[in-house]
Amino acid sequence: GGEPHRAASRSATCSAAHHVPGEQPLASPPDASAFRPEEGRPLRGCDRSPVLRGTGCHLKDFGDLSFTPVPKDDLYNNLIVNPRSVGLANQELAEVVSKAVSGGYSCVTVGGDHSLAIGTISGHARHCPDLCVIWVDAHADINTPLTTSSGNLHGQPVSFLLRELQEEVPQLPGFSWIKPCISSPSIVYIGLRDVDPAEHFILKNYDIQYFSMRDIDRLGIQKVMEQTFDLLIGKRQRPIHLSFDIDAFDPTLAPATGTPVVGGLTYREGIYITEEIHNTGLLSALDLVEVNPWVAASEEEAKATAVLAVDVIASSFGQTREGEGTLSMTNFLLTR
Ligand SMILES: [Mn+2]
Question: Which regions are flagged for Low complexity bias (predicted)?
């Protein structure tokens, strides 16, 4: 299954926080107690975020969030790791995301492990209760605290968010603030290839929609995206929350991550996903998670993974593979 092999993290956070290019050496260990939510209609010429330069967006950088681990954060049920610290960190994160989104921004959160989606989606939903979620990941991250075998909360975030699942989810210490905010028809997974038996049962039993790597092989990424949009925004336009786990990519492309699984997305498939989401004009929040230079075998691996993450973010906000011109430029060429 997906989660048992994951590197344990001390809280809801870690990894990619510092790896916006041009800022810090890519292989330097991140501050495990910080994520870095950024907001933008990212930005031309913003010096803190060369990542989004050229996409023509404005950027407001909220900087890193740092969280204080709760002392004596005992295991819940002898298994669940750091429940109070993860719960509290996500509560703070939800506040920031909610503020960003209600300020009219699309909110980018760079993590960190995938448990941060508890906070980002909760915060996003406060302002956009009608949102839908596209979850790009090798794993379903939908174990409950009762089905998990590893106890890691980064294998469970979706279980806290889905309304239909709440009878199966006990309340953890530190989690009392969470209100499940999405219904199962409002989430689509893309890229699954390592799903625990209990997770498989949940996906089937609650009729949760997903496109596994096999589905991508069968249909091609173009049809997968068409069907994803038919399912989520075919009937009405809604804000999209994209929660992108870098381990959706093949480990040859994204080796610096905690739970790599062979047989993942190609670069072209991954970037096609984000380009299509950008083209909807509905992207309202983006999580980019599980980039972890600590587990890279070399600086090259860490760098390649971080650069890939940057491409995911930039293409989500309009960086294209075909270049772009302006109307006046076209006129210029035609009249010259
Ligand atoms: Mn994940």
Answer: 9-19
Let me know if 45 is exposed, middle or buried by CB neighbors in 10 A (0-12, 13-18, 19+): exposed
Determine if the peptide bond prior to 258 is cis (ω within 30°): no
Give pLDDT tens digits for 289-314: 999 999 999 999 999 999 999 999 99
Domains defined along the chain, listed by start: 5-335 (3.40.800.10)
154 is catalytic: yes
Say how many Å lie between the CA of residue 160 and the centre of ligand 1.
Answer: 14
290 is catalytic: yes
Task: For residue 58, indicate whether it is catalytic.
Answer: no
Ligand 1 centroid to Cα of residue 53, in Å, is 27
Which range, of 3-17, 71-85, 102-116, averages the lowest pLDDT?
3-17
- What per-residue string of b and e applies to 308-330 under the rule 16 or more CB within 10 Å gives b? bbbbbbbbbbbbeeeeeeeeeee
Please give the model's pTM, rounded to 2 decimal places: 0.85
In the reported structure, the alpha carbon of residue 212 is separated from the centroid of ligand 1 by a whole-number distance in angstroms of 14
CA distances to 115, 119, 126, 202 from 178, rounded to whole Å, are: 13, 9, 11, 20
